[in-house]
Amino acid sequence: MMPAMLTTHPSILERLPNEMLAEIVQYIPRKDLLSICTTSRLLSRLSIPFLYRTIYVSDTDIKKLKNILDVMEKYTDTKDPLSRHVHEFWLLLTHESNIPQDICKRLLGTLSGFSNIRRLNLVSHIRDESRLRTFLQTAHFPSLLNFQYITDPIEADDLTVFLNHHPTLTKLLLTCRNTYHCPLGEIRLPCLQQFSGNSCFVKSLVCERTLQIMCIFFAMDELPTVLERLEPMIHPDGHILVVTGVSLDLPVAVRQVADKIPNTMYLIFRDLVEDPALTSEDVNEIETQLKKFKDLGCLELDTVSKSRVYSAMEDEADLAAVEKWGHVCKSLHRVVLHGRHWVYEHPGWEVTDSLSPFEMLLQ
């Protein structure tokens, strides 16, 4: 409806102030914006910046990459450069030398001009990319809030410099797939609220009680050390702690968190190496530790294969465990155990298919 209406009555719309037109245009779906661009020069000029708010590029589609660079460079010397309107940029590098040297130079030069970028995602499978290293050393985005960097391996010094150039960051994801020991220098992020990444990066973070959501990927059992490091950085009003990718003794892990960070509101163990089903002693020990938490609302113990089919007796045992934990921890309203999501709905606990808080908050 919108493109047809604009085509039928261009003169009426063009009499509206540009500010009002721009306010209307920003809420129009992308596919309709493409149609609007053909109706008049004015509407095209107002629509183009919104078409480039979010950019996804990959070295698997060089033609698309060149087209985006051509458009960006076309508007570089105008009164209102298009680069100022880019808020999100996603770059995927999959091949060692797939991007020609001249295209790569143009790309990094254009990227450096995104002065209002809010979110930057870099995924690199390249082992030695000096051009990306130079970018990390020199780039500065004054409005950057969200940075995700997935690499293999990592250039620690360059990344340290980049992160310390961006104290505005509130969300940070750092993942190094094949190299566990990736020592970074000290990274000061005074506004950081959410951190996801390898446990080895935690020792480099410095912030003062701003962290609210933490998703830590472990390569080995380092939980006590990481908790010791996290404790002074966590927001006092509660937070979400997600531990993933490690084999550990769950009752001991729950105790370690309860002793060190009792204001945890969501405690989630995900994608763990499979362990046997919890014994009655494990259930009792977890019950004891849950008494220490101040306001725990969700406990997720993802310890066994979701493809396994459980017997009615095992279901009853899970329900008994959940009821025990809920009795001693009155704030607890959700438990994930053996792949099933239990929620408390007065007068008792029942299984649900709804998303966990972890899935909803980190989407």
UniProtKB/TrEMBL annotation:
<dbReference type="InterPro" id="IPR001810">
    <property type="entry name" value="F-box_dom"/>
</dbReference>
<dbReference type="InterPro" id="IPR036047">
    <property type="entry name" value="F-box-like_dom_sf"/>
</dbReference>
<dbReference type="Pfam" id="PF12937">
    <property type="entry name" value="F-box-like"/>
</dbReference>
<protein>
    <recommendedName>
        <fullName>F-box domain-containing protein</fullName>
    </recommendedName>
</protein>
<feature type="domain" description="F-box">
    <location>
        <begin position="10"/>
        <end position="55"/>
    </location>
</feature>
